[in-house]
Structure formats: C-alpha cells, structure tokens
Amino acid sequence: MLQGKELLDKARSLSNCSEDEIARGCGYVSPGGRVLKKSFYRALVEAKGYRLGGSAASSGASKGRQAEFRTRVHGNGNLLIGHAYTRRMGLEPGQEFHIQIHHETGSIWLLSVDGDAADPETGPTSPVHP
C-alpha cells in the first residue's frame, strides 16, 4: 500500500481511471481481493498533510462504538439490552431467565431458569439496574 508522495504521484497518474482502479493500483486491496476504499481515502488525506483524529484513528485501531450503559423504552414498550451488556455479563445465546422486579430498589433481576446465576459473584440472582 503506497503512502505519502508515492501515493499521490501514483493516484495522479491513474486519475483517468475509476476510483476502484486507482485504489487497486495504489495497493489498497485486501487479501481476498476487496478494494479497501476507506483505508485508501484516509491515506490520501494524510498524504495531503491532514491528520485525522489522532494516532488511533489514523492507524485504523479505533475501538468503535462504546457501550454507554444507557437504554430507553421503545415506542412499543420493549426494553432492549444490547450485545455489549449481555457479553459483559457472560450471558450466552439461548439462556433463559425469569424476570423479577426488586420493588425496594427498582432494579430488574434476572433469575436463571436452570438454576445457574447470570453473574457468579452475585449468587442466585443477578440484579440489572435501570
């Protein structure tokens, strides 16, 4: 994958080609043959002298979306707990729970149907606080 002045020169020489052909000609192709447009465009912008979002973003090592530990009730009344949270709790697809509302604290507790705790540190119940 070309970078810097070499990338700019090669892209300029291929300017009469399609975007995919330019990216491919500059070496921005995955091992499977897919054109890596985002990496190509990022490298072009950096070759022009602009820094994008610090070192993590420019190296492609950003962490992506982070869990906020916030949710809201949807218009249909459902409450969604996403994958980031269920993974952090150690829950697996197919596990079943009874839902218990703890009236004193207003928290929701998940009680495993098969007797296993959702969180081994909390015993037979795993409170999920809203």
Task: Using brief descriptors, characterize the structure shown.
single chain; 130 residues; alpha+beta; elongated
Walk me through the topology:
Layout: H1 4-13, H2 19-25, H3 37-47, H4 54-58, H5 83-88, E1 97-102, E2 107-112, E3 126-128
Regions with pLDDT < 50 over 5+ consecutive residues? 117-126
What overall form do the CA principal axes indicate?
elongated
Domains (count): 2
Report the portion of residues in β strands. 5-15%
The whole-number mean of residue pLDDT values reads 79
Describe the fold and architecture.
The protein has about 130 residues and is an alpha+beta fold. It folds into two domains: about 55 residues, no CATH class; about 70 residues, no CATH class. The chain contains five helices and three strands. The chain has a three-stranded antiparallel β-sheet with strand order 1-2-3, with no helix packed on it. Helix 1 crosses helix 3. The protein is elongated and about 70 Å long. The protein starts with a helix and ends with a strand.
